[in-house]
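Step 1: inspect the first sequence and its tokens.
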Amino acid sequence: MPKLLLAASLLAASILAACGSATPAPSGAVVSPQPASFSPSGPAPEVTPSPVTTPGPTAQPTPAPTAQPTPVPTPHPTAPAYSRAERYLIEGMMRGEGDCSPVRSGLPSRAIAGIDCDLVGSPVARMGFYLFRNEADLLKVYLARMKAEGIGVESGDCRGGEGESSYIPWAGDDLSPYRQGCFINDLGYANYRATLPGSQVYVGLLGRTADYRALEDWAWIGNEDVPGSPTLWRQNTPYRP
């Protein structure tokens, strides 16, 4: 064989061998694409961020309406229910102007009923009427108060200062039951006290100042009798339990 033909045959054989060594991809195989590459020196590709979803407010359950209590009407003050003894005092008072109410606690010893009044427009701030069962109890309580205040029996009327006296002349050997006295209490206020025997009532006046003469004058306003008596009480039948 000529040398030129032999060389051509060997070259063709080499080319066929090279082509036959490449293994073809099996049928149906998926070839994954290679990720794109970029040069570090070039601009970075723009990446669009994924939108962030902000959670909305959590729905709160609507509370059930609270039942409102039915308003209770405010009761109107009513007049106090007076006992029989208290009504006796109310009916006997001649000057009861002001705010009067029954005394249910703190009564003078041996008293069975009492009425106190707050007065206005007079030298008297407070006025009290107290009922006793008998004259002996009435005098005992009155004289005990005079003694406690340091006022001697028959020491004089209020015109001359603090004192105690009978406001109706008494011819008997025993002490007259018609008595009155005046004094200044520990707080500096004038007091006037009087007994009303027959009704078994004890009256007390508390002044706004130390002027006890003004209290006595007020207690005797309008008196036309001689010797007369305090015009604080209308004489009526004695109290009968």
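Step 2: inspect the second sequence and its tokens, then contrast the two.
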Amino acid sequence: MRMPPPVAPSGDPDERNYKSPKFSLGTLTTITIYHDYLCPWCWAGWIHAVRLKQEFGVTFDWRGAELIPPGMAYEPGPPTPVDPNAPPKPPSRFDLFLQSEGIELPTPRPSFVRTHSALLGAEYARTQGPEMADAYHEAIYRAYWERREDIADLAVLARLGAGIGLDPDALRASIVSEEFDEMILPYDDDAYANGIRHVPSFIFNGEELVAEAPYSTLAAATERFLVRAAKFKKE
């Protein structure tokens, strides 16, 4: 059974360790985002998070929910042949979502990469403060989706980290040692067991979960979060 959310982060690493009985999906005074850089929905979710931060002044507890964790075999299929005579495909749910939100997915879509190292680096960046964590996520999302860089490459991650003010050697050492491995929630058994069935999933006050949602829904949830968080902080 999942533990009830604590009021505020205690600093106990077991609250983020998915193998610990103390593991919590979030706290009553945080907005937690479960995501994976590989996911196009998460690209849109990152854009929404940036907008929420600008509009409401909130910060986030970013946590990895790794779609293709180590040990899971996966190879992307060959590209679909283009038939110039085929009728146009109807837009997908994601296509309609992007259109309604005014978000443009960079093209061509970047090649498949495993994101374990990048997510480990995110946990190291978090230890340097929430602003550094936000800067790291921006650097990785932009590198992967806009410039199609290989974010599985340690040299790339060290360069991106140095560009935002992280110590590249410390970042690299943390990744290589897998220091924060148990803070990355693997898909799909462990994630599903804890209620994370989609990425991105925004969790407000450790309880209200909003996944793959438009900005208007996230903004309304953020307003509710701020009211409840203020109440919990006063108590």
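Step 3: confirm your contrast with the notes below.
The chain has eight helices and five strands. Residues 1 and 21 are 9 Å apart (CA to CA).
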